[in-house]
What we know:
This protein is mainly alpha-helical. It has 2 domains: about 1-105, DNA polymerase, domain 1 (Orthogonal Bundle), CATH 1.10.150; about 115-285, hpI Integrase, Chain A (Orthogonal Bundle), CATH 1.10.443. It contains 13 helices and 2 strands; from the N terminus they run H-H-H-H-H-H-H-E-E-H-H-H-H-H-H. The protein has a two-stranded antiparallel ribbon. Helix 2 (about 20-40) crosses helix 4 (about 70-85), helix 6 (about 130-145) packs antiparallel against helix 8 (about 180-190) and helix 6 (about 130-145) packs across helix 10 (about 240-250). It starts with a helix and ends with a helix.
Amino acid sequence: MMHEILKDFFLYLTAEKGLSLNTIKAYENDLYRFVTHLNDNRIHDFRQVHQDHIIEYLAILQSHNYAVTSITRALIAIKVLFRYLKKEKIIFKNVAFYLESPRLWQVLPSVMSCREVDVLLDQPDEETENGLRDKAMLEVLYACGLRVTELCRLKLYDVDDDFVRVYGKGGKERVVPIGRTALTAVDRYLTQCRPDMEGDREEPLFLTNRGRPMNRIHVWKMIKQYAKQGGIQKNISPHTLRHSFATHLLDNGADLRVIQELLGHGAISSTDRYTHVSRKHLHTSFEKFHPRG
């Protein structure tokens, strides 16, 4: 049971967080070792884990002369895991929340330049049905700053001439403007290649070749493929497009509160962590507002 949950967790890190393979491999080593320790102590359910169990495990690592950096990394992995377990409602209380460590969840993904975004979005072959679909998905991801799960949940009638209706975390609904370029890509996909089903409003907007709803793993693989095809060296994921969307808005003068609304963040602190202020924006603001700039 615990090992199956770990497998889902590593898929989540790969698809949604876009972590490198080396980082995920390190997490696997740390967390499988931790779960083995729990099993040896007759704990076979994450809901049975208490803070003392984690502290005891870290103390064992220390007694075995593990380096401080290795123990810190193990704690980070455990904290990230338990945050995920709480998010997925597998546990009811995050017992690792108050354990001190660097906060991995505030580490920002790579930001793509506008040129890199253009390169990525130009990769799909629009002479093919898959290319038209992939083009539409990429355009919507970047134009609206969606999470990959939000993209996959879009229904057939969630996109109109001006806005996209999005269902975010906790079932919260928000409405996000959609630009002309993305709307054109969606229209081409719908009229030229999307399988014609029943026209039900509950039908998924984006479908696989077999007519099934798109999933986040497929989108992640698609983006990796197009990034490699376009010669983009950065480690990017669907999350990178969302972060780039917010950062580019900030660079061009958008208010942080507006970005918060577009991203669907409940607190401005989430947006403040998510959208770092780029050097370009800092330099422009300094020159504009400092009396001796």
